[in-house]
């Protein structure tokens, strides 16, 4: 069973038994807790404490299947998150179980909002922005569409002020300079092949030809002279993948014989490379149309369940998500969120813990979200009071 915290919660663990059981008796006895096991919404109640034995008696209304010695944690979010780390000891009677308490941790930072469950008839998530992944750039397997895009931009550059222009993907057998550019993701720029200082760049964004490519400068300079090349530029085309990691797709490779390429032209050519990447990204991006259950939600984040196999494989590799929340009879509410944790249950369904990025949510959308959550909170409190009575 898979589980991963993307951003671990910092906990202060109480150092001695007396403090741990005092906290349980004061805050947790006969309170609803959640079992820290997929998908984090099964409830449990501590009904008795046995401080001298380091044990607690826990009622789990749904029942649970454990073997003696299995670890299990429980948690509850007050103004701060509290977690109990336990070991299963045995069953007392139906739905009541003994656990040995191993640790009690309290979050160092307070949780801003209590999360509420969202009935599917009230709201759900959809329209997740996702990406097709390149098969394996490291093995030079690039979709044909990328070659087609490169060819169009090569034609544009050839019709401009540069002479020998190639916009191409990296290949398995290629010029050694191209391979160095691919691996370092740095630009190789020789402004004037007749001047030795052009081969000794101090700019961290550029390759130092002498130190990183070839230090036999007299031989290299003579070769450029024989070929009639006054300037050379190899600019990498860098694409950020679904994990926000840079991938070297190809290069803009320019050789000029009639004039030198001026350093002032580099920003324009870098913008050209970024334009190519934007075109590839627009081709590579799509939105899902399925509905995804919102397990719980607050003003700061939510947990959603994913059942699509392809997304189950790819979303845990992501750092952020763009998606819509759809409340009943309302237009989609767009949100951007950071993935804080994920896990998979026995059925293979994926659960994502998301934290909203406030700066990415427009003020009008934030107010709409808060209004819906206020209504949801009132409904939830009424339901809880009915259960208690």
UniProtKB/TrEMBL annotation:
Keywords: Coiled coil. The keyword Coiled coil applies. Pfam families: DUF1577, PilZ. Residues 359-386 form a coiled coil. Residues 293-363 form the PilZ domain. InterPro entries: DUF1577, PilZ_domain. GO terms for molecular function: cyclic-di-GMP binding. This is PF07614 family protein.
